[in-house]
Protein 1
Amino acid sequence: MASGSVGPLAGPAKGHAASLYLLFYYAGSSITGSVGGWFWQHGGWSSIVALTGALSLLGLFLALRSAR
């Protein structure tokens, strides 16, 4: 749903907005995957759960903050 809403919200710069969305999507995925591997090596599943919870709380905080 997020990638589908980029175009209508971008106005005349749809190509730039879509490319920036994909850049940050894949960069975030790569960084989170690498960081997750480090957490896995040093703490196992409990560390992965903590990382996932922290990222979820960060996402919720940013969503609520942008809704104001």
Protein 2
Amino acid sequence: MSPVPSPPPNFEEAGNLRQQARAAGMDPDYWYAVEEVKRVKPGSVVEVVFWKRSIALFRGEAGSFHAVENRCLHRQLKLSLGEVEGCRLVCAYHGWEYDENGRVVGMPDLFGRKGVPKLSVRSYPVQVRYGLVWLFPGDPELAERRQIPDIPELEGPGRWACVPLSFTCSAHHSMVIDNVSDFSHAYLHRRYRPFDEANLTRCETIGDDVHLAYNTRVGRGRISGLFVDHEKVDTNYMELCYQYPYQRSNTDDEIKHWLFVLPMDERTTRAFFLFYFKSLKIPLLPIRIPRFAMVTVLKIANRTLIGPLLSEDRVAVEAEQEGYEKHWDAPPIEVNPVVRAFQKVTVRKWREHLARETEGADARA
């Protein structure tokens, strides 16, 4: 009977950069996409998780979004098991009511009390942008200073077409980030060919951002390539950036994307992709698809091309997670220097966050 392998080390015990990266969380003092707007109907509540922290995201009947710690103070039930009435979140057990600020504002049975006691759970700043719901899980005083990334192409009357796409994978967030910017895995996508013949031309860390670029053939798939006007768009070069904690790419200012990861725990990540295009052409014709039809085209593309392509990545990183958990002590071997650059930023940012937490605890003691 073979021995059961020991689990991977935690962050403090990790002996090398890869082990540290695979155990690191993400700095909560940033805005994180937590759900697609369309998936939370008015008058409903869902559970979202940021690094092992359960949060109840609810939408008032009038449409506004709010987020509170996901527990009722009475018996500790998850508030996401309850219901939304007006703009209040009601616990499923005894009907305790919480407002958008997490305050208890109603109890069906007070047992002779003259008023509702002053009790509250933590609330979180929430914004809606680009079809996504964003939450700030860190210090609320920093929420106004730290901004959601500006994507001017997705705002205003001339905005580009974009249909968000999201999925949950059983893998650490650093594996997802590594995958999206490491073009050495073109073999995985040999069927769809989103990129091939990649040659890294830039890898530079500036502050918390890792900038990189590839000379590569973009959008050469048998079907997807028909929608790209290769004569007018330079699809032989792509710039990317790990703009902690986000990731983005740009192909000739015509084809762009952002990836927003939601780290749930050491082996679970939610990924939100925004792919957006200035224009696409009608296959076999030198005519661009009308702007009013682009959203419909992207919805079809998400189902038939982009979604299946990302499913290949999801299967790969989930397999990588399983392999890491069994062979975490194997010597790390990387052929693409961008992976090590990403991991250095991820580890440094997590270490800085832990240091701030320790300083704060010492100051309160």
Protein 3
Amino acid sequence: MKIEIPEKKKLVYEMTIPIRWGDMDAMRHLNNASYFRFMETARIDWYHSLGASSDPNGEGMVIANAFCNFYRQLEYPGTVLTRVHVSDPGRTTFETWTTMARTEAPDVICAAGGATAIWVDYAKQKAIGLPDWVRKLVSDEG
């Protein structure tokens, strides 16, 4: 099943990630798990760039689900341009979307995926409302 990446989304972060030899599978393609690692790395790097932390006694985002659509192969050597987008803030959630392209062809999307982020009180392990600063950041107006 292919999940479509929405047209309406807000770009919030970009970073490059080098493809390592060890990221390859036996067929000399980027291993499927590596795409999820790249999406996670970009999402967490964006989160930390906001000054947010993962204090186990605080609050922050956790991922409820994740998916990836594969369009073109990525292989070693190379560097991946990851772009993180956000959309659809709810009471306790927002959507994250990540596109992956080779840096030398930034407009050719090789893979794209998404994840639903839920804002939680880590100590209580319970969803809580999005803070105003997060809602503003992930909304169209922010």
Protein 4
Amino acid sequence: MAEGFSGGCLCGAVRYESTSDPQLTGHCHCVDCRKSSGTGHCTHLVVAEDGFSCSGELKYYDHPADSGNMVSRGFCPTCGCAVLSRNSGMPGMIFSRASSLDDPEVAKPQMIVYASRAPSWDHMNPDLPSFPEMPDQLPGAEA
């Protein structure tokens, strides 16, 4: 597979590209991810900000995570599509939403976080490492 990936919002006003593959891809069942996705979890691709570019306007909604870190969720102001987020506890990293990928097969989930908050109807791959909450350090996501 060639390095990198691309994606964008539903209406096409926001586009992004990463020149490198994700350092980590994971599912998150925290309340914020569930509510912002409209379903049982979000799947994020974690990539270094250098080598990531985004065009078009994003609006951000900031909300503190359980850790106290501020999470800024970027969405298209026209179609409302969730595109990416940033976490103040991981500066220099981008968390792009797998739901916004041009090729969804780029996402190869490696872990599940906040599994204790997963709704019973949102079944995950039982072979993935699963954490009841957020681990202190995400494997593979060192900046």
